[in-house]
Structures are given as structure tokens and as C-alpha cells.
Sequence to fold (186 residues):
Amino acid sequence: MRIIVGISGASGVVMGCSLLKALREVGVETHLVVSEAAARTFLCETSLRLEDVKALADVSYDSRDMAAAIASGSFASDGMAVVPCSMKTLAGIVCGYADNLLLRAADVCLKEGRRLVLVPRETPLSRVHLRNLLSAAELGCAIVPPMLTFYGGADTVEKQIDHIVGKIFSQFGLSYKKGTSWNGAR
Ligand SMILES: Cc1cc2nc3c(=O)[nH]c(=O)nc-3n(C[C@H](O)[C@H](O)[C@H](O)COP(=O)(O)O)c2cc1C
Fold:
């Protein structure tokens, strides 16, 4: 399998790293694009170096490189996950306003009918955000917000992230061993 991972500048860029690590563990080939704003958010929220983030993927691209392979429908993939998805990137996706490589790759997934999974992160959500989320769902995107989870022993931030990664995996028909699932009350 081959999945494109987009990391945009919303809070929680570390979730994108967790997804990349988990995909590597199960042998999925990953193609990464980090938006310019996400590079800034990495600086604000983590001590990670961008080179180390990029090294988590099999291939990484400059977000300004509109001639990159993932900018074309002829690049075969099993879809894309945008983790986290900022409200600006969400707006770009639903409007087809593809002014960076992340947005172009998402636009390509839509036009080619490929899976596009969005992990939108903002709170509170305005009516604009909510309208755009509905538009994205109507366009066929899977909306997987990083909601807090209180079952399955998800009592640390790391476990919360594992839960989200598990939910993203499910969208691609993959199973994540660290994901928490509900198997009925005892
Ligand atoms: C530390 C930090 C946290 C941010 N958190 C959010 C957020 O949770 N959601 C959001 O939509 N934007 C957030 N932003 C603002 C986005 O980075 C900004 O809108 C940016 O233009 C998004 O660009 P991109 O979508 O191309 O990555 C945050 C910015 C910073 C610096």
C-alpha cells in the first residue's frame, strides 16, 4: 500500500508523526508533505527537527513543489490522510483552491475518487468550519476529528493519539495494534 500523509499547521502536528511511524510498522509506503505553517507549528509545539519528521516517511516533498509526483493523478496511491487538518487547509480542499502541494495532492485524491481522510483540529468550531466540514463529507472525505476517548484505558495523551491513529487506519482498511476498540460492556 502507498498512502500520502499531509501535515498542516493546526495544533497536534505530532499526530502526523505517530501516523507515519505506525504506517511504517505495517509496511505501508508513505509520501509526506508538510505545509509551511506546519513547520512553524512543529517549532511551537515540539522539539522535533523537520529533517527527523521527514525521515519518518519513505518520500517527502517540499510543499511549494507543484511538479512533485503526488501533484498528479498518474501517481498511484491508496489515498491521503491530512493529520492534523487546519481550518485553512480544510477550506482549500472544499473549494479546490490548490495553492500548495498538500492541497494539490488532496485535490488529486478527490478528482481521482481516492480515499481522503481529514483529521480536522480546531475548537470551538465556527459556522464556517462546520459548513466546510459538511462540504468535505459531501465530497466523500472521511472526517476523523481527534476527539478525546475515555474507554479502553486511553488515559494518556500518547494513548489518545494511538486511538486516533487506529481510527485513521480503519479508514484505509488497516488494523492498528495500539488502537483502542470497544468490544461491548462487561
Ligand atoms: C501553535 C499553533 C497552533 C495552531 N493551531 C491551529 C488549530 O488547531 N487549528 C487551525 O485551524 N489552525 C491552527 N493554527 C493556525 C494555522 O497554522 C494557520 O491557519 C495556517 O495558515 C494554516 O496553514 P496550512 O493549512 O497551510 O498549514 C495554529 C498555529 C500555530 C502557530
